[in-house]
């Protein structure tokens, strides 16, 4: 055999191995209904631990039927990150609208807070926003939480007005 034929055979073999590794069904990492060891895994329809419906390499390039749409108001999202910029962001999930921060002290304040924000709806509305503030000693007061929610909504409206002037 010539080196050229060996090279072609090796190339064809490696391509077949790569394509065959893409096929097959993948499960969530354990028995049905059990989350994988690394945490919750979602398939292309957003259900936990399910099987992936893509069965061949050509299905990747076709239209997706079960993709999620993001139902989060972008102005509230940006305003939340802007108002709570003094808190270190630990986790964000734009698909569910959750922002989780670590402890931080506001400028000019003496008490440290952490926040969990849930943006539930695409509307620029107070019902779309749920803020949970905690101090190191427990939940923050309702007045403080309300003030943060009001600041986020006011900033979201400012951002929206700024976008409409473009």
TrEMBL record:
Residues 1-21 form the signal peptide. Keywords: Signal. Residues 28-48 are annotated as: Disordered. InterPro entries: DUF3576. Transmembrane segments: none annotated. This is DUF3576 domain-containing protein.
